[in-house]
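Appendix C: a fully annotated inverse folding record. The material below is reproduced so that readers can follow the format used throughout the book. The structure is listed first as tokens, followed by the designed sequence.
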């Protein structure tokens, strides 16, 4: 029996994709898939299918994005709409699609891929749980004001929503940001409702509401202060009532803004990240790394940095706060003896974007070793606050 073909989606595949997504992910997801696939702004080369005699057995899509890391920018993508026919599971169809995505993404300048998905599943394909999912806050909506200044947003508000999102993302050390089209499709999606709080006709705060059975979750929420947050949530809850309301925490929602709003509940899950070309990624991050070096006690030092990934290595020269181009190197099985540090490849994105930082990672993982470079690694890779804008909520 011939293997199913892996290829880009065509217009003729749309009914099969929609039916498959409806069966495996739900009707709202199916409506979203059709909306995107029929939008001329979406390039269907980003949407893959596994087909057998024109029957769609499996599907997946990549959406463009960007990693913002201090002054550095790296092209990124979001993996969404991964679904396989129940009778075709276990045949490696997702793996084969991911192989194609991983080959094509760097050609488009997308070197980091983010996904929310089944526990452990994506670790088999080079992804790691690099960023924790946000805690949630249990909100008593009945105690909040029902403001007439809150209204539902439309696609005509996209510029205002992006501006508010960008203000909120500035509070994070690292942000994986969705491109404009993806944010527009989220507003159009039947699974969500986006609300704005206005002041003198100008958007002041925003949130995206998702329903999960009898519970609603406020996502992508931005408000400049406690009063506007309460007014925004109260007005949105009045327009979209539910039995219970949760607020997804964000770094921009500081303790003073959240004070007295509700109980905070930790979430044990995480976002997957896949770091592709590590030399390219570390070179792209040099503006951020140099700023950290220049602001540290190591600003006037010089030397050669070595980070062993055990199966390969990365080297760079640094002098007086400047970092030279990162160079690929051979495997270094004993990095401490070579004067360097060791980080396994499946913790590389965690080192760059995670909440632990190099020093705490060494305490937690036996195969993270800093050696005599400990101070350099501490300065270059501190703990990070990070936020990921995903289509699917991480709960």
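Designed amino acids, in order:
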């Amino acid at each position: 029996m011939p293997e199913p073909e892996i290829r880009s989606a065509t217009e003729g595949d749309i009914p099969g994709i929609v039916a498959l997504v409806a069966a495996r992910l739900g009707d709202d997801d199916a409506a979203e898939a059709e909306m995107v696939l029929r939008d001329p702004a979406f390039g269907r080369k980003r949407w893959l299918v596994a087909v057998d005699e024109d029957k769609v057995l499996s599907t997946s899509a990549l959406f463009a994005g960007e990693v913002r890391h201090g002054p550095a920018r790296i092209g990124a993508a979001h993996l969404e709409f991964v679904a396989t026919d129940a009778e075709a599971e276990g045949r490696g169809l997702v793996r084969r699609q991911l192989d194609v995505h991983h080959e094509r993404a760097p050609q488009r300048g997308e070197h980091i891929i983010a996904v929310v998905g089944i526990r452990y599943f994506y670790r088999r394909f080079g992804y790691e749980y690099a960023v924790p999912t946000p805690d949630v806050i249990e909100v008593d909506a009945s105690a909040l004001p029902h403001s007439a200044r809150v209204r539902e947003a439309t696609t005509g508000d996209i510029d205002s929503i992006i501006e508010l999102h960008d203000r909120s993302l500035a509070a994070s050390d690292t942000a994986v940001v969705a491109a404009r089209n993806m944010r527009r499709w989220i507003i159009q999606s039947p699974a969500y409702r986006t609300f704005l709080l206005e002041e003198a006709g100008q958007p002041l705060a925003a949130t995206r509401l998702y329903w999960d059975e009898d519970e609603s979750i406020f996502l992508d929420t931005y408000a400049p202060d406690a009063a506007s947050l309460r007014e925004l949530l109260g007005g949105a809850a009045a327009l979209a009532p539910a039995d219970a309301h949760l607020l997804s925490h964000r770094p921009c929602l500081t303790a003073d803004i959240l004070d007295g709003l509700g109980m905070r509940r930790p979430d044990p899950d995480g976002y997957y990240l896949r770091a592709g070309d590590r030399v390219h990624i570390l070179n792209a991050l040099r503006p951020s790394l140099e700023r950290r070096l220049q602001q540290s006690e190591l600003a006037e030092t010089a030397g050669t940095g070595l980070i062993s990934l055990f199966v390969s290595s990365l080297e760079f020269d640094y002098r007086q706060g400047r970092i030279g181009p990162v160079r690929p190197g051979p495997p270094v099985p004993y990095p401490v003896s070579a004067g360097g540090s060791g980080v396994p490849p499946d913790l590389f994105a965690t080192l760059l974007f995670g909440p632990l930082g190099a020093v705490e990672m060494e305490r937690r993982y036996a195969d993270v070793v800093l050696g005599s470079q400990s101070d350099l690694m501490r300065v270059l890779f501190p703990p990070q606050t990070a936020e990921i804008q995903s289509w699917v909520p991480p709960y």
